[in-house]
Amino acid sequence: MSQPLVKDYVPFSWLSTVQVKAEHFSALSHYYAAAALCDHSPSCEEEEKEEEEGRDQESERVFQGFYVCPPSGPLLSTVLRDPEQRRKLGKAHLRRAVMRHEEAMRVHGLCRILRKMDILQDVLSLTHRRALDKYSELDCEDDFDETSEAPEIQPQTQQKPDITPPDFTAVHVKDLFQRLGPLSVFSARARWSPVRQVCLQRGDGGLGLTLRGDSPVLVAGVLPGGCAAEAGLREGDYLVGVEGQDCKWSKHADVVQLLKACGHRAVRISVVTLHPAQHTQEERRSMALSQGDKENTRQRLLIGGNKGQSSASLLNWNRKKKREGGGASRRLGSTFSLSLGSIRDTESMY
């Protein structure tokens, strides 16, 4: 986790937690090794001599199994049979346990999130104090020999990691943005009004509105004096719901069917209004620069005509521009428009 390629993606609190646990469990392993060495005293009675030798052999096999390398000095079998040598080796383990506990407490204090965990602080303090007390019991006043280094203990675990890749096909999810409606319409480029609730009561002349398009359906016209106009429905509104049912993705025929299903009773619809786009300061500056470029081009053309260009060429240029502009379609005043396809085919009066 501390490697350069991984460290940037792992929170500092996670890395600190792993380091604290690694030091803490290493200290516990040395503490329990010292407890096994010092709390077990071999018996000297004759009737238990053979049984004790068997236990010593078993103890030697166990210690050789969890040491990374054998301890320096006397053979391990000799150390296990001598109480004084067992005490010294146990003291070395306790010394390393105390050092590991202190390192765990130091790393714990560096992380602000871990410092808020009182129970973790209590566990680290308790085990550290227990190792110090045990070390004080084994430390004799007449022990002038330098404490040897305890061998490292081989880490082991009963848990085997099982890495199973996730099966994403087994989880059925919906698009998070499905409820927003079609992206081509309900995007951040458009400015929409809040959803309005309109209650329509069908009259003798129907609802008094004209619908057009699909996904979403557009209110293309409102009959003056009709029930739609009296309810506050305006031309240019978009139907996004009928009787609580979302209609942003509905086709024209589906919305009409929902309206007809209500019969002569009042129908409650949800509508939104598209506001005209407002240009930002940068867009206005860009438009001003574009107008300035056009004006400069026109001035250069006029100056060039005065220097010898015939007036006929300028007249032909104006006529050409008019012919090109005559075939161009009229553009909307807003910079954002909705594509409704062949909307005339689905426009109907209701």
Structure report:
The protein contains 11 helices and 8 strands. It is α+β, with helices and mostly antiparallel strands. Strands 1, 2, 3, 4, 5, 6, 7 and 8 form an 8-stranded antiparallel β-sheet that branches. Helix 5 packs antiparallel against helix 7. The radius of gyration is 43 Å and the shape is elongated. The protein starts with a helix and ends with a strand. About 9% of the residues have low confidence.
**Main pleated sheet:** 8 strands, antiparallel
Shape: elongated
How many alpha or pi helices? 11
In N-to-C order, the SSE pattern is: HHHHHHHEEEEHEEHEHHE
Helix content range: 40-55%
Determine the structural class based on helices, strands and strand pairing: alpha+beta
How large is the radius of gyration?
Answer: 43 Å
- Please state the average pLDDT score: 75
Low-confidence stretches: 307-317, 326-345
Strand content: 5-15%
The tally of strands reads 8
What separation lies between the terminal Cα atoms? 67 Å
